[in-house]
Specification:
The chain is α/β, with parallel strands linked by helices and about 600 residues long. The protein contains 9 helices and 30 strands. The longest helix is centred in the middle third of the chain and has 19 residues. About 50% of the residues are buried. Bound molecules: beta-D-glucopyranuronic acid. Beta-D-glucopyranuronic acid binds next to loops.
């Protein structure tokens, strides 16, 4: 069990959550002497930086943008006297990729993994009715023993540099909100929900974990604020008559209130919006509330100008408006768990999420997607360090499922992106990961992983683990692009025919396909990188999708242009966006809009 609660921080009758977002003191530890020089007690300099944000794109010096190592953050926080007697936590939405937290000079907590929340229990270490110094050491080095995978090299000038095994910039820092929280000693730690729909009614099977033994009650309110159900006990059933179901683009959200009581006394109260819906795979269908859905949408990134991977509430709003405009109904959180606010918004807007853990770069190559396209076979899971990687991966998966399981929008777990799947050693690794996801999720949502180009029938040993077969394919881009596109189509169909021949009786989904396109480039006749070519490419793949009944969804790569490491394959970033990084449409956006507005939700049912 996780040692701290993953519940989203909220102020309720019994809890307080105070935002620590804003300007923090900031220092890059170029000399690697932070510990020795006592930074834990206060960092040098006067530089201030916003939280949440990636630190990389604010400054004008390249050595800051490319900095690899420890960066230090500091903020003084006032802890109210009336909180004494409660549990006091500092909760980080994420610290990329690992962090150590110090309060008043003392080390309190540490965390590995850059895309999931953690709490530092500071109850015994703060001074009440006084300011307390919070210092955080954040490290952004990449390794093959944690996810996402990569290397850290040292250049001849002595500077360290990140070499990601993945195609997005290694943005880092305190990229999500930080909260100071006060919760009662006996508090709601976690809860699970599972749904059963029978006719017009629904049953919500619930179980609540608390840190004590007092009585628990659970109450459900509808959108009008009327009580819809009430139940007592740490586990039980909420019976909802005439239930409003959570549907695609027609989200109905109930408010679940969980209380711990001691007679008439309220010990703790926590609440969250929830949606009643079921998810199931039957044959080649993805069923939501028993009805088939066809997924239309994107692989995304958290990525925007200036703040990098930092959570930006305005960018989030714009992205949802664009996704609605274009007729999308779903997205994959490529290639890491996103900020919690994005899932809350998807719950509200009725979007379907394939929730991905940060297991990307599990392929021995500096640009896995390139080498995989050549059919190269590697043996990533045969390293001596694989057990360490597996441990970190399992831990991240546990945190992910615990954090996101109660979002109606989350309909599937993506457990890896483009891993190596051709060696025997991959199989036991996959088994552990897939079994764990099943064990942790009471709703038993479908599990998947995104298959890289060389993971094809006859080569891939791991696709049988997937409940939905998710393909990342680039016929017409990395394979036979440009004037050779007609051959790309032949090869594409040949591969799909081979899958079809396996008769897997499972839904297939395209989790990636796309062509790099410069938002500024027009060319008649088309050439690769022009907007005209993106349209030709999309028309080709769409006609292939329409020819196979078992393909139950299309998520184009990518929603928007995004930053990557510099190099000869990328023009200041990956340009496969349907929208530019500034969230304006390329021509392909209008093409997809026309298609997606027409395709019914139960397309190919
Ligand atoms: C796939 C990766 C994705 C890349 C994409 C691309 O999953 O992260 O950005 O290809 O090459 O290999 O555009």
């Amino acid at each position: 069990m996780l040692e701290y609660s993953m519940l989203y921080p909220r102020t309720t009758k019994s809890r307080r959550a105070v935002s620590m977002d804003g300007m923090w003191k900031f220092h890059l530890d170029q000399e690697e002497w932070g510990e020795e020089k006592g930074f834990a007690e206060g960092i040098p300099g006067k530089d201030l930086i916003p939280v949440p944000a990636s630190f990389q794109d604010f400054y004008t010096g390249k050595e800051i943008r490319e900095f690899t190592g420890d960066v230090w953050y500091e903020k003084d926080i006032f802890v109210p006297g009336e909180w004494e007697g409660n549990k006091i936590f500092i909760r980080f939405g994420a610290a990329t990729h690992r962090a150590v937290v110090f309060v008043n000079g003392k080390e309190i907590a540490s965390h590995e993994g850059g895309f999931l929340p953690f709490c530092a229990d500071v109850t015994e270490h703060v001074c009440y009715n006084a300011y307390n110094k919070v210092v955080v050491k954040v490290n952004n080095e990449l390794t093959v023993t944690n996810i996402p995978c990569g290397e850290t090299i040292t250049l001849p000038n002595g500077r360290k540099m990140s070499k990601p095994y993945f195609d997005f910039f290694n943005y880092s820092g305190l990229q999500r909100s930080v909260y100071l929280m006060s919760v009662p000693k006996e508090y709601v730690f976690d809860f699970d929900l599972d749904y059963k729909i029978s006719g017009r009614d629904a049953e919500i099977n619930y179980s609540v974990q608390t840190t004590g033994e007092h009585a628990v009650e659970v109450e459900l309110f509808d959108e009008e604020g009327k009580q819809a159900a009430l139940a007592k006990g740490k586990s039980g059933v909420l019976e909802v008559e005439n239930a409003h179901l959570w549907r695609v683009h027609k989200a109905y959200l109930y408010r679940l209130v969980i209380r711990i009581t001691d007679g008439d006394r309220l010990l703790d109260e926590y609440e969250q919006e929830i949606g009643i819906r079921t998810v199931e795979i039957k044959g080649t269908s993805i069923l939501l509330n028993g009805k088939p859905v066809y997924l239309k949408g994107f692989g995304k990134h958290e990525d925007s100008d200036i703040v990098g991977r930092g959570f930006q509430i305005g960018v989030m709003k714009r992205d949802f408006e664009l996704m609605k405009w274009i007729g999308a109904n779903s997205f994959r959180t490529a290639h890491y768990p996103y900020s919690e606010e994005i899932y809350q918004m998807a719950d509200r807007e009725g979007f379907l999420i394939i929730d991905e853990v940060a297991a990307v770069g599990l392929f021995a190559s500096l640009m896995n997607f390139m080498e995989a396209s050549t059919g190269k076979e590697t043996a990533f899971f045969e390293k001596e360090t694989t057990p360490l990687l597996l441990k970190a991966h399992k831990r991240a998966l546990e945190e992910l499922i615990t954090r996101d399981k109660n979002h109606p929008s989350v309909i599937a777990w993506s457990l890896l992106n483009e891993p190596e799947t051709s060696s025997d050693a991959a199989v036991p690794y996959f088994k552990e990961i897939f079994d764990l996801a099943h064990e942790l999720d009471v709703q038993k949502r479908p599990r998947t992983f995104a298959l890289v180009m060389n993971s094809v029938p006859g080569v891939c040993k791991c696709y049988p683990f997937s409940d939905i077969i998710a393909l990342n394919r680039y016929y017409g881009w990395y394979v036979k692009g440009g004037y050779e596109i007609s051959e790309a189509e032949v090869l594409f169909r040949k591969e799909l025919d081979a899958w079809k021949a396996l008769n897997l009786n499972k839904p297939f989904l395209f989790t990636e396909y796309g062509a790099d396109t410069m938002g500024t480039e027009h060319k008649l006749p088309s050439v690769m990188w022009s907007q005209e070519y993106q349209e030709e490419y999309l028309n080709m793949v769409n006609s292939v999708f329409d020819s196979y009944d078992f393909i139950k969804g299309e998520q184009v790569w990518n929603f928007a242009d995004f930053q990557t490491t510099e190099g000869i394959l990328r023009v200041n970033g990956n340009k496969k966006g349907i929208f530019t990084r500034q969230r304006q449409p390329k021509d392909g956006a209008y093409l997809l809009r026309k298609r997606w507005k027409k395709l019914p939700l139960d397309y190919k049912a």
